């Protein structure tokens, strides 16, 4: 009887040790395979420079220059010396990357899609039928590395390098910006757009600086060679 009990204990210990070894060595392999499988499912189709240009021009035309009506926001200080509606927009010449951590209050992190904006983008896509969630994941994946944004050569657009934003932080960032660009309304940053598998739709994140500090996600549809804005997460500037 004692020998049988001892063998039972040995068996239990052996089974337990086998389970522990399996958890230590096999589980990470399974997790790695699952993670690899998930990332293997993302195949972003970043827009070419020509496609990026057409998408940016369409958004600029439809959302910012369709009319000279002011957005439902207060004019930023100081009040511009000439009519606000005649002022230009500063376009930053490199694409948005991904912010790695939440921004501090009154200290926006330029050049990247903020954590809070990513959360808003996710909620918008979840609540908005017709936008494939995978396309948003691909937008985030494609935005891991910033790239040069081509100059759209649009009237009233000042195309400038990202270095012009250096030092613009804190609660006085608006005044600092308008001191550098007294004839501009605000600055704008674009992500690199990503296209659907069939190339008929595109998703792009646009960041408006020094007036709203909130990003807008645009979902566009292409018919032939023409893009049009189908959905936007607001605020928009129509």
Give the topology, please.
Blueprint: H1 2-40, H2 49-64, E1 88-92, E2 97-98, E3 112-113, H3 115-127, H4 133-142, E4 157-160, H5 173-180, E5 184-190, E6 194-195, E7 201-209, E8 214-223, E9 226-232
Parallel strand pairs: 1-4, 1-5, 2-3
Antiparallel strand pairs: 5-7, 6-7, 7-8, 8-9
Summary keywords:
238 residues, seven-stranded mixed β-sheet, 5 helices, 2 domains, alpha/beta
Provide an overview of this structure.
The chain is of the alpha/beta class. The chain has two domains: 1-41; 49-232, no CATH class. Helix content is 36%, strand content 20%. The protein contains five helices and nine strands, in the order H-H-E-E-E-H-H-E-H-E-E-E-E-E. It has helices at 2-40, 49-64, 115-127, 133-142, 173-180, and strands at residues 88-92, 97-98, 112-113, 157-160, 184-190, 194-195, 201-209, 214-223, 226-232. 26% of the residues are buried.
């Amino acid at each position: 009887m004692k020998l049988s009990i001892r063998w039972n204990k040995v068996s239990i210990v052996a089974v337990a040790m086998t389970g522990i070894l399996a958890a230590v060595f096999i589980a990470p392999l399974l997790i790695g395979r699952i993670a690899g499988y998930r990332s293997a499912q993302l195949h972003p189709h970043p827009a070419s420079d020509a496609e990026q240009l057409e998408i940016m021009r369409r958004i600029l035309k439809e959302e910012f220059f369709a009319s000279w009506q002011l957005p439902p926001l207060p004019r930023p200080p100081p009040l511009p010396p000439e009519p606000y509606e005649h002022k230009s927009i500063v376009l930053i010449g490199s694409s948005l990357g991904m912010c790695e951590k939440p921004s501090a209050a009154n200290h926006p992190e330029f050049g990247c899609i903020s954590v809070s904006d990513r959360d808003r983008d996710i909620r918008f896509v979840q609540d908005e039928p017709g936008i494939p969630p995978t396309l948003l994941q691909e937008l985030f994946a494609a935005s891991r590395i910033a790239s040069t944004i081509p100059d759209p050569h649009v009237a009233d657009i000042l195309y400038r390098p990202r270095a012009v934003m250096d030092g613009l932080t804190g609660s006085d960032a608006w005044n600092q910006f308008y001191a550098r660009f007294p004839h501009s309304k605000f600055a704008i940053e674009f992500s690199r757009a990503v296209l659907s598998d069939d190339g008929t739709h595109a998703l792009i994140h646009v960041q408006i600086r020094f007036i709203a500090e909130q990003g807008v996600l645009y979902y566009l549809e292409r018919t032939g060679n023409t893009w049009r804005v189908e959905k936007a997460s607001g605020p928009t500037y129509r």
